[in-house]
């Protein structure tokens, strides 16, 4: 392996290997290990970063600007923190239309307004035609951890319950349909949305919420594997409990994709103490982005990530290896 | 004007217009106005972001990795803060050699070690061949403002003294010579370096240090204009006091460049209370990156940015308008 491959960016095992081999070893410190979505600094401040290269820049249900704000708002939130401040760094291709740039920036501003975060610092680079494809955006963000919470990818325990805040695979299939010019009726829209308000309400359950994770690249399958690995547990989910839009399911059947591998940009997976599972579900359902929330499985001590199918059989879920769809986010 | 031009990224008036028209208006808040290098949060925490697209990726005296760490370390420092934590987000072109990626990451790790900062969070995206030119890196950073200091682009007062920490234009000319395959003897090396240790020592002068700014894109001229504008003052510098390497000066003469417009990546401009100017100079000179430091001018109430030439005449310094050299950083 002497060259970087697209699959190194796919959010699966190849990306994990690249990060561990090249970045984590070199930047060796207590913060960068542990596969958390955000670094925890000064005891209660979270810091995250994410670059966005999505193609197309405007897609059904959103655009790169909305995605860039939601992505970083959600990353901070998944550590049990209230996101407050974002940075925004643009790399723009020479010749990019000013009108489109304005649309992207307006979309960022509106999304930041909705999420209640401020964009406090920025950077603008312009590169020659062909040096970059359109516009790439990096957002980094700062949040403050809620009091009396302890949310970490390491906290799942056998007996805990697994919830998802809504339908699976919408973003991935929206991007795919836009890129392949597929028509669905109704059209499949990205779920891109800020989840911090939902998480603020979930945090009233305090330590009953053990793990929060947004299933972006690599999808639900990858998140389940990361929880399993970092918490040292197994997870079983139930196919008949999984919320998936009929259109997404049909498109997956047609194209041979597993919706568990598709990216989501407005969903969260929560691992919750069993006693509080129904309460967590009600909180999710009461939020505008959580009406299709469901309890989808449970944590066990098997170390395996399995699914009970609608046919009554059980199988191990495939962990994503590489790139399902480049430039999904 | 309906398309983004290279000159919109050049660090001069066109970039200022683009930022004010498109970004500052949309992200309207008290933090993003004011042209500071870093946002000040929670009273004493600084947050900055910078994307790096330098070409070539490896250049005389440094590489994109060293540049990415120094750039963000220096941005935090210029607000009178001690940089502590950095994020690192890579956008990598499919097919990029793993060996080169390792060199870049090693360079980042070594520079972070020297500067005493930790890289605590990261992101990796891979885009298809042609989607990006090699490797782009974003670093964002957090610092903590030193006690009893008040460093801001708005603080220059008539009577204050202007210092620079070393020779002017080295980075810009190093990139240009690499890109144009020009040979100089001795070769012109980039000055890319972390200035936080020098600034830590300068901060012992407390409020006597009014303004700190690193003259990157747009060079010394742009920084002088920004100080003039934001502090509402004039600045006069003396040509015979300016530290410039003979090789850089000759190359500028040859190519018709003004070294005041060339980018620097390891230099700072300081505006200091006159009573402490000599002390500040001694502190700079005692630092490994400040041995060519000099007092180069003074603040006045003229609102003009002028230079007293070696011929005894005085002229207004041209403010950079657009792109001298794309992808300088």
TrEMBL record, chains A, B:
- Record protein name field: Hydrogenase expression/formation protein HypE
- Indicate the family of this protein: Belongs to the HypE family.
Q: Which GO terms describe its biological process?
A: protein maturation
Start and end of every PurM-like C-terminal domain? 157-305
Entries under Pfam families matching the protein: AIRS (PF00586), AIRS_C (PF02769)
Q: Which organism is it from?
A: Thermoanaerobacter uzonensis DSM 18761
The chain positions of domain PurM-like N-terminal read: 36-145
